[in-house]
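anyone seen this seq b4? input:
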Amino acid sequence: MSETNGINRAKFYQLALFPMNNGATNVYFVLILSYIANFGNAVLGLAMLFASFMVTGMRVFDAITDPIIGALMDKTNTRFGKFRPFMVIGNAIMAISVFLLYVVTPLVPESVMWLRYVLFILLYAVWVIGYTLQTSVTRSAQAVLTNDPKQRPLFTVFNTIGSLAGMGIMQVVGMVMAWDSFAGDYNAKWYAIMTPIGIVISIILTILAIIGIAEKDNEKYFGIGGQQEAIKISEYISIVKANKPLQRLMVAGGGCKLALAIAQNMTVLIMLYGCMMGNYDTFNMVFMALGYVFSAPFFLFTVRTSQKHGQKASLMKYVKIALACYVGVFVLLLLWKQGHPAWNLSLFEGTLFDSDFKITINLYTILFILFFGVGYGAYYSTADMPIPMVADCADYETYRSGKFIPGIMGTLFSLVDKLVSSLAAAVVSVALMCIGIHDLPTKVTPYADGMNWVVIVLFCLIPMLAWALTLIAMKGYALDGQKVKTIQAVNAARKAAVSNGMSMEEAMATITDETVAIAEENKES
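predicted toks r here
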């Protein structure tokens, strides 16, 4: 049995495979949220402001649909489970809509531009619904996968593997396909090639995730009494007001997601590595690879810290490291001088294995690698840590009110997360307009006055501010390692009492932290 003394433990393959659901949706996070503004502007010929603000508007629409999906999920219990139907339907909707958007829409003649605008909006909106359906499961199903405080931190490790299988592959293949010798500079051909690749990868990862959650997608793992909760959307506000840990996690998770969405925005990276440093293809790929290399040891550190001291302590510790390192990145970007060999990134000249190849790395580049690598590694290892922490908040809600509502808890967190990250594309566009740029830069766009300041703000200052807010929010987060253990013990005792015939109301009233602690002491003595 995977449930012993009230502790629901997952098998290794379940811990490893279910996070692939996040990898499956991260495929589209790259394919849509990273590239759709460029697609609308450069491929369809839509106005830059329209394309950019549509990203923001649809992200808001995505957030608004979350509570509806969460409430529906908590009421769902089919022969195929509570969560798996949302995974399958959501993935199918995304596959169909993104294919029609990226492959079919460009075939509409420019003479009927209005139709391009209409299809862009409609297909994007349909995709958002599918994305909401599947992403909601990643956070919500954490509550049934495992409640073991030593297992939940492992999600971040396996989630990274899933992300590399989804987001990482899409980013690397996307950069290679953008080379002139392949599809070219994020043109219609690039989207036509990348779309089926992304669809296939996402389907494979979804199947693996379904295998991982299949056994746990069962009502015997649904809270204390196993019943379905009939929670109205109008009750969301009272739930958030009462669940203080969730409030703080929303701030922390939203801040971290905003930092990632802006700092890793394709336009920001093009300005940094292309317009400023002069070689987007090389620097973007090298520093992306370095980011993953530096992240590897930090994932081991975060798991060990989480298992020993709790996820709160781990999140705060490594966000502090990221914040300190990005001060160094900030200083280096302030010192950058256009065209100056000592104050620019430099790795090599010529072609590898040719006689003209020469290593040209300088002190500026070495310092950038160290500050960026350690900072990005520390941050990236904590970026998805709020996901299993949502499960702690869901368990706290069961402990507080007796209600098992993982769908609502997951989508409440997701709502704020998406609303905040929806600002990314709009912030980038507004920043560009402030320096007189009205079209999104591409790899061949020359440097323009003020780009360095835009990069400093978007690549450094906004993430640093977001991390500072995370630290402030987490300082008062009540669910430390010891409190989570207490919550699990109380929930387990109440569940056992209800299964033996006690009413839910009596179990909630009579089984408390104190009574469970006394029972544990008597057992030990």
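The chain has a mean pLDDT of 85. The chain has 22 helices and four strands. kinda curious what u guys think
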